[in-house]
Amino acid sequence: MTKKEKLLRRWGFSSALLETLLNVKLLIYQSWFFYLYVIKGETISFFAMEELFIEYMPATVAWSLIVFIFFLVAVELIFPHFAKGAVIGLAAKAHKKQEVKGGLVLALYNCVPIFIVHELFVLGGISTVITIGSLMIRYGPPGDFLLLPLGLLVFFWIFSNILHFFAAFAEEAIVIHKLGPFAAIGKSMKLIISHLGHVVFLLILLFVISLRILINIVMILLIPGVVMGVGLLLTKVFSPVLSYSIGSFIGLILVATGSYFFAYVTVFKQTVWTITYLELSQIKDLDVIHEEAKE
Questions:
Q1: pTM for this structure?
Q2: How far is CA 166 from CA 176, 191, 205, 229, 231, in A?
């Protein structure tokens, strides 16, 4: 299904591309902060990068770039939820041998409830935890007093991921059965607890997801290194602005190439979850003992 349905892969590629761009930007910023804080002992402000743009670029160019970056970040945060509704709905249609179309309608109709479910478990994301931890280190209490909030952050990250596992079918319930966010989470928890016999299948899924995370981490670590390395190398010949522009362009090509392959894994993983949800939903609930005959 992943190889056959081009429409599924297009939605998957768009989502993977924007997610990778967001993670790369976060890593570049946090790497810069780490270098200044640990190596040089300096603490930068939250908008330090924007301040550099204003200082070293013409005002019109700097503000245009800042507005574009903030707009792009907003799109990167929202679009993956938008695309997930389309991928789930189109995968369900393909599995049921229906015509695979209507991705935009599925995305628009399900974007808000999927976004709500995701935000309930926002602390489960490693990028979110790194960003919050970075802010705590910069602006939190000094010394040993910082250990408590950082420890609580790690605890909530683990707790959020455990809850997120039991809510793994919530997005499918939203798209396929049109349930609200909390009803969908309840149905997901009931399905997973009721069918723990399928845990081997779920472990295979988790293994695939882990592979994707490892590949993603390698790409996300590689791309900023290439951008900065090329930029530093070219500064010996060209101006800093031109050098880092060329490095950024090369980085974008690498992001697009990596996202093309991520799309296959993203769509495969989501499609398997969708088919699993459809099959498990057809089994009678374990708490149902007697069903009244329908007239």
A1: 0.74
A2: 18, 9, 14, 42, 45
